[in-house]
Amino acid sequence: MKKILSIVVLLAITLLLFYINLPVINYGFTGFTFIIIVVLIIAVILSTGITVSQKTNEVKLARMPSKFLYISIAILLIYCIILPFFTSLKMFRSDSYQKLIGEVKNGQKITNHIAPISIDKIRVVDEQLAYLLGEKILGSQPALGSQVELGEFCIQKVGSELYWVAPLLHSGFLKWFNNKEGTAGYVMVSATNERDVKLVQQVGGKDIKIKYQPNAYFGNQIHRHVYFNGNATVGLTDFSFEIDDDGNPFWVITKYMKTIGFAGKEATGIILVDAQSGDMSEFTIAKTPLWVDRIQPLDIIEDQLNDWGEYVRGYWNFSNADKLQITEGMTLVYGKDNKSYWYTGLTSVGKDESAVGFVLVDTRTKEATFYKQSGATEYAAQSSAQGKVQEKGYRASLPIPYNINNIPAYVMTLKDDGGLVKMFAMVDISDYTIVGVGNTMRETLTSFKNVYNMADNKINPNAVSNKKIVKSIVTRIQNDVKNGNSFYYFKVKDYPNIFVGSSQISNQLPVTIIGDSIAVSFDLDLEEVIDISSFENLNLKSSLKTN
Fold first, then answer.
1. What's the pLDDT band for 115 if we cut at 50, 70, 90?
2. Which of 39, 344, 379, 444 qualifies as a cystine partner to 438, CB 3.0-4.6 A?
3. Sign of CA dihedral 455, 461, 464, 466
4. Which helix (H) or strand (E) holds 521?
């Protein structure tokens, strides 16, 4: 009877540990092995008979545990400790780690990859601000705000627009118990317009109920739901909340395997889970629906890029020759092909201020491209932008790289201590001393291009696209003072756009009037208002010659 009871207890403990910890049952994973070791140790304790002598009060073992239990524990410990040492240690497998990222292609110019962009499409809302805006709209719904909390925001393309999207999650066990059908929707915050914040509670006229989520319990907990539906033998990571182009909520879960013994994580595909019904679909990387932006997890790409740069000359490279390391942050950006990429700078080991190049990694296929282009690290760009407004004490957000008229530039927001955006900044990646700041993105772009043009493009003479030159007659002109600088807006005959330039571009601008013949040069871009690179008043020039 005692033996049967012991077996029942062991079985119950085993099932409970598996139910709580959800270990991967496959070679290269040690979680399930540690659970078995714990169960075997308990079995040793239960199988040990203990007696107490009435004469001497000595505690004695009435029977010894089976040798099989000890041998099993020893084998499992070898599997968990010794085997990983020989199969996964970087000292022995540095070449495998270095090649795990795959072929890293060499790119010509990073501006060939990052699309030119209109200023109204530049990302001005980061994750921190998105959370503040999401909390604000959630707080405007008192009955809802007391029941749920915001989940983690995930940036994604919805149609052609860029949004931060976060699910509403249960705020505790009792809230889940009283609302098992699910939480009522998700929050969308535009990444390009902080006034565009939506609480989405219906799709196609039907109420949204996010039943499967990280804050649910028992079978409704998203990881447990996926694990016990045929995925106990595969690694699961990066549970990202995304919506399809119709607004239906899903969980995108990356499947991975170990490729270097007990290490070397490699994404193999995704599991797409309907957040409402729990229905699951598995896809290889190549067959994943196009609306899914992210398959390759950030932490896996970070590790693989660092190993690629660290072991370029093997493990025993004490001089650090040719070693590279990624800069302090990786950012998700979108290329001119409308695909999403992990972006980071690369620096030589021991040098932090200057990057030797930049890497873009496709977030779906993991295709990596290295651009050997010196420039500022994200941290150096942030410091430069903050230094421009140091008297205000603003803090710069994580820089996002953009193509500004074929000039690779970091764009960031400048926020106060409360996390609210107060100003914007643009910093030339090639030379972080070229900085433009403004109260609006339009002001910032004008300031940046003026500073860049005044530098006479000596930093990167090949960066700017072919300039266009227009000779015409001024039909309107008006000045405006911003941040202590005078800017002149004018229109010319037979050209639709408005031009703008500062008095620092040309001292002839302040004395130009309607009817004057002028010649201006500028970069073709996507803006209605075009920043000029040079300005010449032909009337003033001819009058000087006459005199």
1. low
2. 444
3. positive
4. strand 517-523
Other Cβ atoms less than 10 A from the Cβ of 443: the count is 19
CA–chain centroid gap for 254, Å, is 15
Reading the block at residue 413, the tokens are 């927001």
> Three-state SS for 454?
helix
**Residue 213, helix vs strand vs coil:** strand
Strands 357-362 and 340-348: antiparallel
Q: Nearest-5° angle of CA 210, CA 215, CA 218?
A: 95
Measured CA to CA in angstroms, residue 126 lies from 154, 189, 216 at distances of 11, 10, 27
Q: Are strands 324-326 and 375-376 parallel, antiparallel or unpaired?
A: unpaired
Rounded Cα distance, 300 and 294, in Å:
12
User: Contact 401/343 with Cβ under 8 angstroms?
Assistant: yes
Cα separation, 225 vs 280, whole angstroms: 10
Q: State how far the Cα of 425 lies from the Cα of 444, in Å rounded to an integer.
A: 6
3-state secondary structure at position 173: helix
Cα separation, 194 vs 134, in Å, equals 10
Angstrom distance (rounded) from CA 461 to CA 449: 14
Report the C-alpha gap between 324 and 305 in whole angstroms.
9
* CB-based contact 454:414 (threshold 8 Å): no
**What does the alpha-carbon distance between residue 178 and residue 138 come to, in Å, rounded to a whole number?**
20
Instruction: Classify 75 in phi/psi space as left (phi over 0), alpha (psi -120 to 50) or beta.
Output: alpha
Return d(Cα 338, Cα 114) in angstroms, integer.
Answer: 9
Q: Are 524 and 499 in contact (CB under 8 A)?
A: no
Beta bridge pairs of residue 274: 250
Angstrom distance (rounded) from CA 332 to CA 293: 10
- Cα–Cα distance measured from residue 63 to residue 47, given in angstroms and rounded to the nearest whole number: 8
Count of Cβ atoms closer than 10 Å to residue 110 Cβ = 22
Helix intervals (H) in 153-269: 173-177, 222-227
Which of these ranges, 121-135, 267-281, 313-327, 475-489, has the smallest mean pLDDT? Answer: 475-489
- The model's confidence at residue 463, banded by pLDDT at 50, 70 and 90, is very low
**Coil vs helix vs strand at 90:** helix
**Least confident segment among 31-45, 154-168, 239-253, 519-533:** 519-533
Q: Nearest-CA neighbor of 140 among 178, 197, 194?
A: 197
Dihedral over Cα of 172, 174, 177, 180: its sign: negative
SS3 assignment, position 277:
coil
